[in-house]
Amino acid sequence: MAEKRKPLLGFVGKLPSGTTPGNSGKTRCPLCMGLFKAPRLLPCLHTVCTTCLEQLEPFSVVDIRGGDSDTSSEGSVFQELKPRTLQPQIGILCPVCDAQVDLPMGGVKALTIDHLAMNDVMLESLRGEGQGLVCDLCSDREVEKRCQTCKANLCHFCCQAHRRQKKTTYHTMVDLKDLKGYSQMGKPIPCPAHPAEELRRFCELCDQPVCRDCVVGEHREHPCELTSSAVHKHGDSVRELLKGTQPHVEALEKALAQIEGTNGALQERVEAVAADVRTFSEGYIRAIEEHRDKLLKQLEDIRIQKENSLQLQKAQLEQLLADMRTGVEFTERLLTSGSDLEILITKGVVMERLTKLNKVAYSARPGVNEKITFSPKEKAGLCRGYEVYGAISTKEVDPAKCVLQGEDLHRAREKQTASFTVICKDAAGESMGRGGENIQVAVVPKDKKDSPVKTMVHDNKDGTYYVSYTPKEPGIYTVFVCVKEQHVQGSPFTVTVRKRHRSHPGVFHCCTFCSSGGQKTARCACGGTMPGGYLGCGHGHKGHPGRPHWSCCGKFTEKSECTWAGGQSAARSLLRTVAL
Questions:
Q1: Domain span including residue 275
Q2: Rounded to whole angstroms, how far apart are CA atoms 146 and 154?
Q3: Is the pTM of this model over 0.70?
């Protein structure tokens, strides 16, 4: 009944504000933190004051209740067994462990009283650690003595009255100060049905303590015995359960210790890995920053170099322009303003100067361009032991300088992959040395221009690109290769796709006699025969070509296409040779 489960409806009990649930010891309530007052034992074996339990907000659940409910209470043991019926159940939550506690019919006050907690409270009060005890009889004055026979705490007035009565005259009275060293103080537990009688017997049939009146009343024919006798049997049962539970406690403690150890090791490992991550990332960041600075310095050097070249070219062109203007202005002024004699006198100097100026070579285009590219995915080697990426280049691919290479450049076979390589170069004819260019390739059948062949372009990251395609049918195909939407050298070009390569069904041998193991019926396409009824060729005999050849078609090249197209009978004899 103390299992954790969600209530079906109602409200969940909450702790009063300002309290913290937990184990407050043997004498203090975990809610009010004061000494226990009428402590009640919950099914989860936590103890709480009756008033504190009554302050918790109950919730309602629907449960099947019956007389054999496992909610133990001091009041419910006197109720008659009832058949199981579907009825609403009122419950609360334990303020310590949040376990659901189904309340008996009598509510909180019907829960079992924790007499151990009451005994501990009494002992603490006797030791002066709590509030003073009041008399059990008058409930008014402070206790001075204790009757060891009745187990009652009495004040001075009630103690004298206790001694004057005949029944209690000879009871042993002890001062409270003499009881401070005791570890246990038994107090009579009255019968709930007969408060004047003390519970001294145990009914085995009903499994509950009873008083003398109960034995002669409701439990008249039930097997009853003194509690001192019954406790041995039932105590043994409890000890057996305890014996079976203690290993679980030890196992759980060990498991928790292992969890704590693992958690500690986990924390240490997390910190160590975090330190490694920080060290790696910090080193990587420094490497990237250093590589960044190198790239920026390289970029600045390129800028200075290009600017110096442009400034030098500019100065040369400005000087040449000034000389040209001087010559042109002087000559125009001479021709328009000079006399005939003046023109003839200065003609030689003017013509010599203009001729010299006209022979000066100069470039009308800038000697350098603004082309500077950054390739963030290009590997740039190691920096501080870390692989870094990103390179600056002033090279620019020139489609007119790019070339095509490959054995399958102008030939291919149907349903077989053909390939070639595109080598990208700059305007100076030097290899780009890096990838990243947009290579566009199209392979189009001559007769089916609307059905291009699927092509694959693999960037080798070194300025070369591997192109592959698989034509499905034989015929003439046109291949277009473009870089930056411009054709490279040799593009477009045609490819002749022939039928699929025919493999040799025979064997490449020196002669039929050797390859067939001396079989007479084995034949060879070379047409050679041997005396003695051998249908195949042999060394030095008629028809042998004098060199290794294929038995199926007679070709002398081992890696060649088979051209054999013989009949069925020839195929049988050739297959014999092949099998051997």
A1: 229-359
A2: 6
A3: no
